[in-house]
Design goal:
24% strand; five-stranded mixed β-barrel; 11 helices; 2 domains; 30% helix; Spore Coat Polysaccharide Biosynthesis Protein SpsA, Chain A; alpha/beta
Length: 351
């Protein structure tokens, strides 16, 4: 890498899939799901030594800003910004790009969601270095593709084309939206598809050029942010008027020079209670729990308690049981994806 490296950490999110542990003010990335650290803390630890803290921007939203600041008391205060409205990933990345461009208009930047589980930090950093070098040498946009371990219909996919000279680097043919199960299985069988991890790397000049070509409203917003002494005013007055659209659709699917670097590390999106259960204690009957639980004639249950209460299950199967200080969830584990629909029916103070 010849240019300084910056990082944009996307730490918004609605906090619905992990209710009742998660709430609007405390979404997935602020939970301690798989270790003694929150997923946001794990994300920052993962880039320690790769990107200095003063070159990391954390984007959250107004509902979660207080929680993020309390969690990261030693993080530079001015490097935590709350989006004043929810505007999806295109606006968030435009905001982050403007922030980086104000500091170094020739920088290379990486974009990381704050809610992934990655255990091998050393391999992660090596992949990111390769992606940064690729971005600088090609003048393209680089995405991190994860080799599928199963035909997951819940992820977007990247179709790989020509392999480049550097091992693990490919041209991207196209992005594919979340497929049905049959299509996902055909993607996995073909061998040239990767999961779209939502992690990106590019040089700031390259991305500014793409915004100018494909999203002039967002490009204009970035220009306003960069005007001297105008950042706070532009964020406050203009952000909530930006289009609510995804970055993949706005830029990645339309750009000409897009490359994928294959992840050389483990990766898990942990999108639901069912997905996170593999990190809990397991028994011989398929039950998973985050603390000691008494089970009798019960199989394939997931149990999580954060208030120390003793939980015992008798004669039940395929349940998710989650207890917090003020709420209890009991649902069928095959209905885990529908928890977010349940949340909207709850009293506001429990959402």
């Amino acid at each position: 890498m010849s240019q300084p490296l910056y990082a944009l950490v996307l730490a918004g999110g609605s906090g619905e899939r992990f209710w009742p542990l998660s709430r609007k003010a405390r979404p997935k990335q602020l939970l301690k799901l798989v270790s003694a650290k929150t997923l946001l803390e794990e994300t920052l630890a993962r880039i320690d030594g790769l990107v200095p803290r003063e070159r990391i921007l954390i984007l959250t939203n107004v509902e979660q800003e207080k929680s993020v600041r309390e969690l990261l008391k030693n993080f530079p205060r001015e490097n935590i910004i709350a989006e004043p409205a929810k505007r999806d990933t295109a606006a968030a990345i435009a905001l982050g790009t403007g922030w980086v461009a104000m500091r170094d208009h020739a920088a290379t930047m990486i974009v990381l969601p704050a809610d992934h589980v990655i255990k091998d930090a050393a391999a992660f950093q090596e992949t990111m270095k390769l992606a940064a070098t690729t971005a600088e040498e090609t003048g393209g946009l680089v995405t991190i593709g994860v080799k599928p371990t199963w035909a997951c219909p819940g992820f977007g996919y990247i179709e790989l084309g020509e392999a480049m000279k550097k091992k693990g680097v490919y041209r991207v043919v196209r992005f594919r939206e979340k497929p049905n199960v049959d299509l996902a299985e055909s993607f996995v069988r073909s061998g040239n598809f990767r999961w779209n991890s939502g992690m990106f790397v590019w040089s700031v000049p390259t991305l500014l050029s793409e915004f100018n070509r494909h999203a002039p409203k967002l490009a204009d917003f970035i220009s306003q942010l960069r005007a001297e002494g105008n950042f706070e005013k532009s964020l406050r007055e203009r952000f909530n008027k930006l289009p609510r659209i995804s970055f993949d659709y706005t830029i990645m699917e339309k750009a000409d020079r897009v490359f994928a670097v294959e992840a050389g590390f483990d990766w898990d999106d942990v999108g639901s209670w069912s997905a996170v259960a593999k990190y809990f204690q397991q028994d011989e009957h398929g039950n998973a729990s985050n603390r000691e639980t008494t089970m009798s004639d019960s199989t394939n249950n997931i149990v999580f308690s954060d208030d120390g209460a003793k939980i015992a299950l008798l004669g039940v199967h395929n349940l998710i049981v989650v207890r917090t200080g003020d709420a209890l969830l009991v649902c069928h584990r095959h209905q885990a994806e529908k928890i977010k629909h349940l949340v909207g029916k709850l009293p506001p103070e429990l959402q």
